[in-house]
Amino acid sequence: MANPDAIAFNEYQSTNRVTTAVNGRVDLTMNQELSFTAYFRHTKWRESVPSSIQHRTFDAPGGILQYTVHSGAGRIKNHFSVGTDLEGQTIDEFRKPNLGLAAEGAEFLSLERIGQRGLAFYFLDRVELGPRWGLMIDLRCDQIRNELTDQLQAGGLDLSGKNSFVKPTARLGFSWNRDARFGLFGSWEQGFLPPATEELANNPYHLGGFNPNLVPSALQGEEFGARGSFGKRFYYDAVFFHLDTENDFGRYRIPSRPLETFYRNAGNSRRFGIETAINWYPVDPLAIRLAYTFSDFVYTDIKSIQGDFQNRVMPNSPRNRLYVDLEYKFGRHWFIGGAAELQSQWYVDPSNLLTAQGYTLVHPRIGFQWQRDNRRIELMLSSRNVFGKEYIAFTEPDPDGNSFQPAPTQEVFFGARIWLDSQ
């Protein structure tokens, strides 16, 4: 059920978003190419929470530019790329008191502008050593800058500030293919996750400004896998992965502002997992697809609202997930199919005391396909959770007791897709 504040303060989120983008590739010479992507996203967002009503307007441009040169001959070939990622975002935000039922008070609790900029350079080199071996190295450096301008300066206090994060990372990988039917691959990689806008903007020390104590979460891990086929009707893919993280983010609250949520670097984790996928075509009209994931995710140490723990299973991490899909084509244009989605139980918070029940859902579909020359049309009617199973979609360790979020029961969709090829 909803928490007690949901009705009294009319809690809601409202989002309106427009996105546009263009991408392309230019062949400079026979062995050199330039690829690019440019995009822009505009968002108006509003949220009602017990303490306030927040308004944000986002403008977010960005782009990717990559130059690639192909060289080598015979058994050894090299593919070298250098590129840059550019991202920007401007957020105009203000908050006003929530007087109840999302009625806004007249005074401003905060009035600020957040400017964000991301700049990354990377070098990617992929080497083919004959028909069987391949090597890859990827070097990257990211700089993420956040700047807040306090336009309210309540009580003469200027909460303007800056927070920047710089991190170099690397990735090494290999592949070996005995033939077209069997191959092995593996990689070692680093990464990092900077604090999100929401995590930075919720400041436990003042109403407005940045949280000054957050640092990026760092990760390092490996993966090894195999893929291949048996004949022309059975294909498989299996991967084992391991990941260690430091300075994971977690939520907490303070007595002086009990209705607000804040974020901190709360702990470290160790994760092992297996991901598998199978495609089987026993006869021409029938396709069977299966995907299974096993997860063993543990907080080695964690500070949480429920207490401080060591070696506890991470919340919202079910150990077993299975997805099975069958599709059968009949006649010249029709197909019918269905999927079953299974998930085991999971823990709600780091104490590992509360659990959410696992579930099995069924999703049928029927469709029509038509193709002539370079034109193709597909129509499909589908249902999700056709039997109306009542289940929990996700959970969160909420101190208000609003931890269990129910999912929709039956959903029905109709979709249409059209392909037009000028060639």
Describe the largest sheet.
19 strands, antiparallel
Q: Could you say which structural class the secondary elements and strand pairing correspond to?
A: mainly beta
Radius of gyration: 26 Å
Helical fraction equals under 10%
Counting H and I runs of at least 4 residues, what is the number of helices? 2
Distance between the termini: 55 Å
Instruction: Report the average pLDDT across residues.
Output: 92
The count of strands amounts to 23
Strand content: over 45%
Element pattern in H and E: HEEEEEEEEHEEEEEEEEEEEEEEE
Parts with pLDDT < 50 across at least 5 consecutive residues: none
Morphology: globular
Topology:
Blueprint: H1 5-8, E1 12-27, E2 32-48, E3 52-73, E4 76-97, E5 110-129, E6 133-150, E7 161-179, E8 182-193, H2 197-201, E9 217-230, E10 234-254, E11 257-280, E12 286-304, E13 307-309, E14 312-313, E15 320-330, E16 334-343, E17 346-347, E18 355-356, E19 359-372, E20 375-384, E21 392-395, E22 404-406, E23 411-420
Antiparallel strand pairs: 1-2, 2-3, 3-4, 4-5, 5-6, 6-7, 7-8, 8-9, 9-10, 10-11, 11-12, 12-13, 12-14, 12-15, 15-16, 16-19, 17-18, 19-20, 20-23, 21-22
